[in-house]
Design goal:
4 copies of one chain form a homotetramer. Chain A is mostly helical. Chain A has helices spanning 6-25, 32-38, 43-50, 53-77, 82-93, 101-113, 118-139, 146-166, 173-187. In chain A, helix 4 packs parallel to helix 7 (118-139), helix 7 (118-139) packs across helix 8 and helix 8 (146-166) packs antiparallel against helix 9 (173-187). Chain A binds a DNA duplex through residues 1-7, 10, 31-33, 41-45, 47-48, 52-53.
Chain lengths: 195, 195, 195, 195
Amino acid sequence: MPKLGMEPIRRDALVKATIAEIGTAGTLDVTVGQIARRAGMSSALAHHYFGSKDQMLLAAMRHILNLYGAEVRGALSMAATPAERVEAIVRASFSSGNFRQETVAAWLNFYVQAHKSEDVRRLLGVYRRRLRSNLLASLRHLVNDPDRAAETIGALIDGVYIRQALRQSPIRADETIELVLGAVDLLTGKADDKA
Amino acid sequence: MPKLGMEPIRRDALVKATIAEIGTAGTLDVTVGQIARRAGMSSALAHHYFGSKDQMLLAAMRHILNLYGAEVRGALSMAATPAERVEAIVRASFSSGNFRQETVAAWLNFYVQAHKSEDVRRLLGVYRRRLRSNLLASLRHLVNDPDRAAETIGALIDGVYIRQALRQSPIRADETIELVLGAVDLLTGKADDKA
Amino acid sequence: MPKLGMEPIRRDALVKATIAEIGTAGTLDVTVGQIARRAGMSSALAHHYFGSKDQMLLAAMRHILNLYGAEVRGALSMAATPAERVEAIVRASFSSGNFRQETVAAWLNFYVQAHKSEDVRRLLGVYRRRLRSNLLASLRHLVNDPDRAAETIGALIDGVYIRQALRQSPIRADETIELVLGAVDLLTGKADDKA
Amino acid sequence: MPKLGMEPIRRDALVKATIAEIGTAGTLDVTVGQIARRAGMSSALAHHYFGSKDQMLLAAMRHILNLYGAEVRGALSMAATPAERVEAIVRASFSSGNFRQETVAAWLNFYVQAHKSEDVRRLLGVYRRRLRSNLLASLRHLVNDPDRAAETIGALIDGVYIRQALRQSPIRADETIELVLGAVDLLTGKADDKA
DNA sequence: AATGAATGAGGATTCATTCAT
DNA sequence: GATGAATGAATCCTCATTCAT
């Protein structure tokens, strides 16, 4: 039991506990006590490390966005053509790391929180702009109206996410990915009509 | 001031105040006191009529879904061909009555609430099945895989909604409708490739 | 048990309980719970009527200052000559209503609180200016340097108060008054030297 | 860095930090953490040396009283006549060392603390008795009723102190000293009437 | 029908204090 | 000697809900 350097360990545990607790409860209405208990410490210690509940929520959100960003970057690094790049982005969005019940639930709640917190709004904006610019860079080579295509794909991804948040049965990422990719094919003219 | 028959009036006022308050706050974290004050009565009376806060939220949700359902039915009644029927559904989804900032905010919050309340989950399920069957009935005549098309359009609508919830500027329903209809055209093969 | 018009009753009870509790504890470190319990209600109700603990403390202070002001006014109204007026002010300052253990303890604590609260500072300033101008109006007719005399008497009164706050035995207002009046006589030249 | 003999250094630093912190905050509501940080150490170490927060406050108070006592003794040692001795005591009370904003604030707070702590009460009693006996020893040669005169001067000094605690502008010790000495002159019959 | 009155339960946050290293 | 780690206890405040009138 090392008594030094606990801070990163505790912070990490709290961030993960926060996400898990939100995922389980399906709400941001989780108490600091619940989170701390799940992370194996007192609520006082949680405050000691994060200062406030809001900061904890924010850190959890950053964590999720970072994971997502890393996943996208990794997928993009292995894609060669524009079409592959678009597909990589979509696949990363529904990768097993991101598209988990609890992550999705947290995600949905952050959308709500954006109404109350400037910080959350900003973070969500960063995510969206990044997704958009990633898509645009590739779609530019594939379609006449890349802006509209990017917006459509982005909205479709978000829509699938929100629907996922409601589902109770285990998740079928593959079906979902196929659905979105099918739409992408249509948008880029790769698909046969009346598919 | 007739003292009889106040019940429907009061209930209606409360439902509308609930939606307005959620829309303004952007959260379900609205107190009964706030809602009651906006509806011009005491919080005790609100409880008298609804029994609990949850029942009030549920009633508000039913109200929104009813409005939406009516709008869709109205639009459908004037559509002749399958293609027109699909377009009618999409247009109704973004009609001025439904696609208002506060309604959208409430909608988003109901998605969250679905995790906590069986009733809310059920209501949301009803809405989704209805939308799905409406779309299916028409898409059956237009595409090879109506299930997938219905799912795509449904997800797209939800995605546009959730994104709307974040926007701060006033709403542009027309752009949004065009975006979704463009996707519909692609799905149904009406559009030229590489649009 | 009337169920209407409780507000003034409750507020009054809380103000008195606040003073009593501060007097007993000798500190401003009294909890809202303690005060509310002494006033015979829940702490939630106390918050309902006052909004915050600070507001309760402020109300208690206003109450004490009002009592003091009324006492002084009453005494002044019966004084004819300038000398009598000065004596009336001194006597009122140590009247049984003001010079009670608990009131004095509260008073002392307000002096401390003045460092933290702009409102308290302001109230204390009002009291001091009022005392000063009352004294000045009379001393002008009695001494060459009324400013200095007023300052001396004011400081003496405050000093006697603060010392009273420490005493544990019951209070001897008469001795105290005599002490201060003796000093006043010296200042106004009424007393024999080497008294 | 010698590790031996740190105790007196640490204790001294903590005592001074305590006084400074109380002076800055104007309250006894100072956390051990604040004090320790100002003294350049951890709060755990502060507890190691003092055992409890109360002991730290007590030590701070002793420190102030010791400084005051030394100052008075020094001044007395240079005074020849009874009148000079009284003046020396007064001057020492308002010497630059004692009559500083932060010291006065601490002083005031100790008066409050006396209600809660037997130890503080005792210390304050010691101070008062010492002041009283010092004054009495000299006043015995100057006035008919030395007890009353001592009490008056003591109260006046305390009163000036408490008023000082409220002032926001920098301190004018000279004016204050003159005020008190003027009263002393009156008490001892040295002054002209109607001064 | 309507409301002011009232509260219990709960939650975020703070802090003195202890302990292991 | 020194400190980061850790917590229990307390406190202010909020809110859904109940009740008497």
